[in-house]
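ok trying again, last paste got cut off:
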Amino acid sequence: MKLHDLLALSNKLFERQAPFKTLCQTLAEHFYPSRADFTINRAIGDELADNLLDSYPILMRQDLGDGFAAMLRDGAEWFEIDVLDEADYAGKEWLQTRTTKLQRMFQDPNTGFTRATKQGDHDYATFGNTVLSVEPNRLRNGLLIRNWHLRDCAWEDDESGQVGQMHRKWMPTLFDLKQTFGEDALHSTHREKCYREPMTKANIRHIVMPSEMYGKSEWERYGFVSIFVDMANEHIIQEQGINYRYYVVPRFQTIAGSPYAFSPATIAALPNARALQAMTFTLMEAAERYARPPIVATEKVVRSDIDLGPDGITWVDKAYDERLGAALQPMTQDRGGYPIGKDFREGVVEVLSSCFYLNRLSLPDVSREMTAYEVRERMKQFRRENLPLFAPVERDYNGQLCEAAFSLSFNMGLMGSPYDVPSSLKGQETKFKFTSPLSAADEEKKIQQFQQNSEMLALAVQADPAVANDYDVREAFRDAVEATGSPQTWLRDMKEVVQLDEVQATAEMAQLAIEGEAAAA
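nice, full thing came through this time. structure:
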């Protein structure tokens, strides 16, 4: 594909993105004012929420955005790497150590994971989309994860419904551009300005697309091609093949035929948010009329402006006869509508809370004395109510991000040598298991089942000792220990266990032989 055709394709995608930006601008003005720069330019220091009278919709969006991290990425050990088929002991140990490595990468401030996902969560809650890049850092000794403004990103789906190509506008300084790509990669006009005007912005377009679509033979062995283009000079700064998805685009709720998703929370809440602002204005205006009612003044009697301030003086003609009525008197207001409006506003606030799932985010109250059965049933109900919201986020958001980070770090050698991968894992597809209040119940269920089975087995063995042969205690115990999330090293390899069993059996047979000889003597 020639550069001219590539840029024409990119510009066409941004033209198709324009209606989506208009919707995002409207949503941002009501729920995310600090992000309301999709169709207008904001200056540093602008008052961001000057069009709003009530902050409740903003606070609810904050609660939902913060809730994603609190529910699904709490602490460091919120995920673990697994494979589709069963792994042996060496495979499980390798997976656990690589899980720890990836967790530490995410915790490293230089990776930018916390900052990027914090920004991404609120984009996801408000607009239903977020764009994150997972790339090597400048020194190529770690990962760099960044969040990008949806305004600057346009994408298209492939035949499988996944994001197939991404086009991003970028305005770095010439200094940053030189630090990233080197001076030799820049156009001559930019090389001249690097030292004289290093803070000058450059108009850059980054494009990631399938190498098959790009059509250049030298990149066919790669899955994707990454191209950085200097738009002002139509100059390719960098062109390289990559075997990982550079961008991760979690999408909240998609509709057929559109690559852009939407947030069911803000779409449902937008009419009520508008109504809330209008009702707040009306109630504030009514309250002000009660506190400072309009004044009726008698014509040609009041000699000065009416002063309603503290210690104010209003002059009245001394010749006026008060028996004809007060020269100044307030207009009494009927307050009957105020409580009705206030009650109606509280109803709108309740609907908004439901739109943002705030009535479901809190864990059930199990503080009072409850049986284990009651606690389990409460947690089951909590799962049923929240799975439609959080299960897609786990798979589409956390899952994509973890897979991209693991794939890139493995290819960079950050996960150790590929020759160290145990044979039981070779050729297997990795998957991620997530730990959250929603999934914790499944693991706790194994522990509870083992405890219950152990109690039943103890009772059954008292009646018939042969029943012990019906239950594989060792297998059940090992599954229960793994369900607790304990380190794999706490369990011995089954090969070692078998050897210990043989040693123990030999020692017992020798002891029995000694006791037999002693009894015969």
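cool. The two ends are 96 Å apart (CA to CA). The mean pLDDT is 86.
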